[in-house]
Specification:
The complex is a heterodimer of chains A (265) and B (564).
Chain A (H helix, E strand, L loop, with lengths): L1 H24 L19 H13 L5 H4 L18 H4 L8 H10 L22 H12 L9 H8 L23 H7 L22 H4 L2 H9 L20 H4 L2 H12 L3
Chain B lengths: L1 H12 L11 H37 L2 H35 L1 H34 L7 H33 L16 H5 L4 H29 L4 H39 L1 H8 L6 H23 L10 H18 L9 H7 L13 H24 L2 E2 L5 H25 L5 H29 L4 E2 L10 H27 L4 E3 L3 E2 L10 H33 L9
Antiparallel strand pairs in B: 1-2, 3-4
Helix pairs in contact in B: 2-3, 2-5, 2-7, 2-17, 3-4, 3-17, 4-5, 5-7, 7-8, 7-16, 8-9, 10-11, 10-13, 10-16, 11-13, 13-14, 13-15, 14-15, 16-17
The chains are: A mainly alpha (265), B mainly alpha (564).
């Protein structure tokens, strides 16, 4: 009886070990998580291109289709004898290369290349504005000149134009564990609307001097329930602030931001 | 005061997004609990399906063997139910403590269905107890039909429970348009969240897969009992039981790829990016591993059938064909396992001279793979046909013509499958994809047509001799174990594929995974996890089988199997 048991066990384990071993010898590929970019106005083309290349080959998922040329036009070497994407992008629609690439990422169905089907999603569903600009810069660098600058990033972060349509669910991670208020207000794109140190667009009340205008409880309530009250002078931007920010912060992070803002007198 | 309460409430709600689990981490803990729970759930949903079918055959044919077989299946269920509930409870605790924010989101949307789920689980359990413990009390006349009705109810409750749970997991893949972390958009209700884009195909796929899985595990139980049988009668009974379980597993398995194809198509329809991630992105190598597993399944199933012909009088006339069928299976297996456009490094591309192998790469195209898998299905069906006809001598006047028509149908189907397979290399991808439908339809038509002719032709057939149940070499039983382990491992692999294509999203493009385990792991790590789950599950199943043996010793031994 024990002999039978051992034989059954040996067969079962051999099969399991075989499949496990097969899975170990094939290429080991992980799906990457898009890195949160914090690109300031002084960002250099080199930084943008490097970030864009990482996105293109990894978490952006671009290479699965655009690297082979079978599902979508090849963007890295050549497509239909027109050269790489950085060379050919300016001839595509009459718009400059940067505008064309950005719009292709955010409205891909409008720029369908002959011979391919409309399978590409709007990049804003998965990527932040910074990440999209980084991709544009990388694609420009493939045979062309990189013209993306920090001004482009600031412009879209401040809410102008179709390209700034927020991806409500694609907000940066807030569970990074940090309790550094500066990192938190940057990571969560607060400074995209609230001026800090004299810089930033007037979409929401400035962080500068907030401590002298509001109490800690008012600031806390403003983060947890931003639509409960609208600051005077900012009525036209009511509803802009993300209502889920408070839920994504830990209690420690929430308090860190509140105390940081109370200190801005 | 109110401000302070607001703050405390908010602090409680936002305290943390993720909990931690010692040593293996939260993701691994949830992975194991979910997978083992799912394996048990598949078993307890699959087994009742053919428990009622075999009971019905027993009632209609007045053959007590089937009734006894059905009861034996059900006895395994009683123990397996407890294990399913225990692992389900563990999964729930792990989700609430390790992924509280995610679980809060799910509970906010699905709370009503969760209560219904729990209520139905109670009802299902009581129905099972009535079904099993009422077996000998309600065994004749109308009472027997009433008892069979309980079996039907058991299946109905079980299926609804599965459909509800499928609503949750399919929502994570394909939430309704406009859903946010806060919940469903205006005008979208619970039903819309459940009946999302991938719900129905997942329901169908899982129903079929459960029948396959249940059959395989029951066959493994029978194989073990065969190997440890003390008498010829016992061996005969468990040989027959193993055959029935394997037959159900393989015959339902044959249609599973079609359901999988539908599910894949719906995933593409919902979101092309998700579909491409699944088939051509970082998961593309997964399908090579799947091809290896399915190749093993086909080989083991055919080997079992060919070995089984040794106990059937008259089967010797078919044996010479088996070596050619083996050749077809192996060639098709190699074709199916050929990689196509895979994610590779620049160095790997350079070594191949392109994105695919210059010579063998052509076999990796969809046309080649579809052709291969259809020939594997046809070959396995032919094995079943030979097995079925081995000891039969048709007496109808049109037997010769009938056989010729069957042969012509096989030939025509092969021509259609091969023809479209070759033609597919000369047309654009979008056209080529459509060809797979014609190939599948041709194979299905052949299976149905040939079976109908065979059933009619063998009416009143003479027997060349009874099947000698029990006279089966031991090695054939190990093929059944290979089938059971492979099906279990395959279930784990496909679970990883379905869940992994969401990548770093708890709910696709709605709720991002921001934990330290947001990265979807590579296949090597996933394989380790799958193997751990399979070992845990099969270890517990072995324990349940042992308990089943103890219970049997208390009530008496099974009746011998006779006849064909």
């Amino acid at each position: 009886m024990w002999k039978t048991n051992l034989k059954v066990l040996a067969v079962g384990l051999s099969v399991i070990v075989f499949y496990t071993a097969v899975a170990q010898i094939i290429p080991q590929l992980e799906s990457e998580v898009p890195e949160t970019l914090d690109l300031s106005g002084e960002v250099t083309p080199e930084i943008l291109v490097a970030a864009g290349e990482r996105l293109f080959n990894g978490a952006g998922g671009c290479r699965a289709c655009h690297g082979l040329g079978s599902r979508a036009p090849n963007l890295l070497t050549d497509h239909a004898g027109q050269g790489s994407i950085g060379r050919r992008c300016g001839d595509r629609t009459g718009a400059d290369c940067k505008t064309y690439l950005r719009e292709s990422l955010t409205e891909p169905a409008s720029f369908l290349v002959d011979g391919f089907t409309a399978i590409m999603p709007d990049a804003r569903r998965q990527l932040s504005q910074d990440q999209i600009w980084a991709l544009v810069a990388f694609l420009q660098s493939q045979g062309g000149e990189v013209t993306v600058s920090g001004a482009d990033i600031s412009a879209t972060s401040s809410g102008g134009g179709a390209a700034s349509t927020p991806a409500p669910s694609a907000a940066p991670a807030s569970f990074s564990g940090t309790a550094d208020p500066m990192q938190l207000v940057t990571e969560n794109a607060c400074v995209g609307c609230h001026a800090l140190n004299g810089a930033g667009p007037p979409i929401g009340p400035p962080f500068d001097g907030m401590g002298s205008r509001l109490t800690a409880d008012q600031i806390r309530r403003g983060i947890l329930d931003p639509n409960a009250e609208t600051a005077e002078g900012f009525e036209s931007f009511a509803g802009t602030m993300p209502i889920d920010l408070g839920r994504k912060l830990s209690a420690q992070q929430l308090e860190a931001i509140v105390q940081f803002l109370v200190g801005r007198r | 005061m109110i401000d302070a309460l607001t703050f405390l409430q908010a602090a409680a709600e936002t305290a943390t997004g993720y909990g931690s689990f010692p040593a293996i981490g939260g993701r691994a803990a949830v992975w194991i609990a979910a997978e083992v729970h799912l394996m048990f759930a598949a078993f307890v949903l699959g087994v009742p399906m053919f428990a009622v079918i075999t009971e019905l055959i027993g009632i209609v044919a007045k053959d007590s063997r089937y009734d006894r077989l059905s009861k034996e299946f059900t006895r395994l269920l009683v123990f397996a139910y407890s294990a399913t509930a225990l692992w389900g409870g563990l999964l729930l605790f792990l989700l609430t403590t390790l992924y509280p924010a995610f679980w809060g989101h799910m509970a906010e949307i699905f709370s009503l269905s969760m209560w219904i789920y729990a209520g139905l689980f109670f009802i299902e359990s009581f129905t099972l107890y009535l079904y099993y413990y009422g077996w000998d009390r309600w065994k004749v006349g109308r009472a027997k039909w009433g008892h069979w009705g309980l079996g039907i109810l058991l299946n109905v409750w079980g299926s609804i429970v599965m459909f509800i749970a499928n609503g949750w997991l399919s929502y994570m893949m394909s939430p309704p348009e406009g859903t946010t972390v806060q919940g469903l958009p205006e005008g979208v209700g619970l039903w819309n969240a459940i009946a999302n884009a991938t719900w129905i195909p997942i329901n169908i796929h899982r129903l079929i897969a459960n029948a396959v899985f249940g059959g395989a595990i029951v066959a493994a139980y029978a194989a073990y009992r065969f190997l440890s049988a003390k008498t010829a009668e016992e061996r005969a009974h468990y040989d027959w039981m193993g055959y029935v379980g394997t037959f159900i597993a393989i015959s339902t398995f044959i249609v599973l790829p079609f359901a999988g194809y539908w599910l894949g198509r719906e995933i593409y329809e919902y979101n092309q990016q998700m579909g491409i991630t699944m088939m051509g992105g970082f998961m593309s190598w997964l399908w090579i591993v799947q091809a290896i597993l399915i190749g093993v399944l086909f080989l083991a199933a055919n080997y079992y059938l060919w070995t089984g012909m040794g106990r059937i009088p008259g089967a010797a006339r078919f044996i010479p064909y088996t070596k050619w069928m083996l050749l077809v299976l192996v060639i098709c297996w190699i074709v199916w396992g050929t990689p196509n456009t895979l994610i590779a490094s620049r160095n790997e591309f350079a070594a191949m001279g392109g994105s695919r192998h210059p010579l063998l790469g052509a076999l990796g195209l969809m046309s080649g793979k579809n052709t291969a898998v259809n020939f594997m299905i046809l070959t396995t069906f032919l094995s079943f046909l030979m097995y079925r006809r081995a000891n039969q001598l048709p007496t109808v006047s049109w037997a010769k013509i009938g056989t010729q028509v069957q042969t012509a149908m096989f030939g025509l189907t092969s021509a259609v499958v091969l023809g479209y397979g070759i033609y597919g290399y000369f047309v654009p991808t979008i056209v080529r994809i459509g060809f797979s439908v014609y190939q599948v339809l041709a194979v299905l038509a052949c299976i149905i047509g040939v079976t109908v002719i065979d059933v009619l032709m063998l009416r009143g057939a003479k027997s060349r001799g009874a099947i000698r149940w029990g006279e089966m070499p031991e090695r054939s039983q190990y093929a059944i174990f290979v089938l059971a382990v492979t099906f279990t491992w395959l279930m784990g692999l496909m679970g990883f594929a379905r869940s992994g294509i969401r990548q770093h999203w708890h709910v696709w493009e709605v709720m991002r995974d921001t934990s330290e385990f947001a990265v979807t792991p590579a296949l090597g790590y996933a394989a380790n996890m799958i193997s751990v789950c399979v070992v845990i599950f099969l270890g517990l199943v072995a324990f349940i089988f042992w308990l089943g043996g103890l219970a049997e010793r208390a009530v008496g031994k099974p009746q011998p199997a006779t006849g064909s």
